């Protein structure tokens, strides 16, 4: 059975995030499609509590909250770092490992401390993009990027755990990589390609 996707009608789209780095990255991905974006933070929308037990559940929760509060379609991302040797942690709690100050230097240090004595440094990033409408309709798309963790962190670009993630087949971490290159290969790029094919192209 083929699922019928709902097309984005044009006009304004809320990026349901208060994370400036994430807002910039999603805005850049949407740029070629002539979409007018505005962040949930700029609209003064509250950040809903992420009570879901999966990336999909949290992305959908955030997208629906912004769509209903703004009466506009809203796009939310829930993403995180999944570390094999840590049983999948930090996973959906990736942002929480950065603490109330959202200091990802602290989060990266914690990951490295937890990996002490472990040889397996495999990890992958997951991104789920959910596009919601005020009437409650929602579309979700998942992307993954696999690689390994390096220490010490390298590069000041990107955000979050980017400086310690080296995607398989690449020499530069996401923190060292030109943003355009990262946008082409990342977990978010994979999810975004599926979103565009279903709802924008």
Termini separation comes to 21 Å
Low confidence ranges: none
The level 1 CATH classification is Alpha Beta
Structural class: alpha/beta
Mean pLDDT: 93
Any idea what the shape is?
globular
Beta-strand segment tally: 6
The CATH topology assignment is: Maf protein
Give a quick account of the main beta sheet: strands, pairing sense, barrel closure.
6 strands, mixed
Could you say how many structural domains there are in total?
A: 1
Known CATH architecture: Alpha-Beta Complex
What is Rg?
17 Å
Total count of helical runs of at least 4 residues: 5
Write the H/E string, N to C. Answer: EHEHEHEEEHH
Report the sheet-strand fraction: 15-25%
Strand arrangement in the largest pleated sheet:
2-1-3-4-5-6
Please bin the fraction of helical residues.
25-40%
Topology overview:
Layout: E1 12-15, H1 20-30, E2 36-39, H2 55-70, E3 74-83, H3 104-114, E4 122-132, E5 138-149, E6 165-167, H4 179-185, H5 187-200
Parallel strand pairs: 1-2, 1-3
Antiparallel strand pairs: 3-4, 4-5, 5-6
Helix pairs in contact: 4-5
Characterization of this structure:
It contains 5 helices and 6 strands. The protein is an alpha/beta fold and 201 residues long. A hairpin with a 5-residue loop joins strand 4 and strand 5. The relative contact order is 0.16.
């Amino acid at each position: 059975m083929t699922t019928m996707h709902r097309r984005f009608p044009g006009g304004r789209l809320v990026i349901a995030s208060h994370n400036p780095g994430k807002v910039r990255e999603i805005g850049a991905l949407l740029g070629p499609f002539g979409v007018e974006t505005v962040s949930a933070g700029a609209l003064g929308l509250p950040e809903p509590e992420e009570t879901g037990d999966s990336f999909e559940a949290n992305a959908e929760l955030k997208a629906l909250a912004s769509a209903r509060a703004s009466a506009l379609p809203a796009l939310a991302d829930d993403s995180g770092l999944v570390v094999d040797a840590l049983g999948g942690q930090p996973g959906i709690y990736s942002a929480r490992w950065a603490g109330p100050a959202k200091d990802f230097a602290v989060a990266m240090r914690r990951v490295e401390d937890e990996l002490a004595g472990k040889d397996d440094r495999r990890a992958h990033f997951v991104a789920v993009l959910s596009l919601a409408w005020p009437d409650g309709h929602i579309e979700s798309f998942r992307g993954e990027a696999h690689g390994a963790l390096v220490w010490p962190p390298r590069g000041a670009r990107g955000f979050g755990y980017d400086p310690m993630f080296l995607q398989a087949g690449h020499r530069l971490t996401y923190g060292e990589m030109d943003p355009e290159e990262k946008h082409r290969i990342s977990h978010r790029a994979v999810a975004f390609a599926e979103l565009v094919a279903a709802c924008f192209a």
